[in-house]
Amino acid sequence: MADYTLTLNGLTCGGCVKAVKQALEQLEGIESMEITQDSANISGSVSLDLLIDTIENAGFEASAD
Amino acid sequence: MADYTLTLNGLTCGGCVKAVKQALEQLEGIESMEITQDSANISGSVSLDLLIDTIENAGFEASAD
């Protein structure tokens, strides 16, 4: 288990937030997530690289603080 | 090759449009696409079901006219 805080870029409305949530929900091992237009707080048995790749493949940008 | 016109729902800004484009760009066989918040015009060697599934997996709704 790990807790991640990511800075998000490119999300400009609630539809974007939903798209990021939807992408992350397809990953195994996520216990909880709180996503806003600016940040993601994610807990789970998942790697940071996979989280960032998943968000970037969904069309947005993410970086670890 | 086929040409599809889909009605889109749930896209509320340019970030959503970009997210849908990004999801579709990961498919093989797409020749061209024109995506707005309301519709998608797509040409390529790809099935309608795959297009709709891809858009829905990205967190949005799509239906064929």
UniProtKB/TrEMBL annotation, chains A, B:
InterPro entries: HMA_dom (IPR006121), HMA_dom_sf (IPR036163). It comes from Nitrincola lacisaponensis. It comes from the Bacteria. Residues 2-63 form the HMA domain. One of its GO terms (molecular function) is metal ion binding. This is HMA domain-containing protein. Pfam families: HMA.
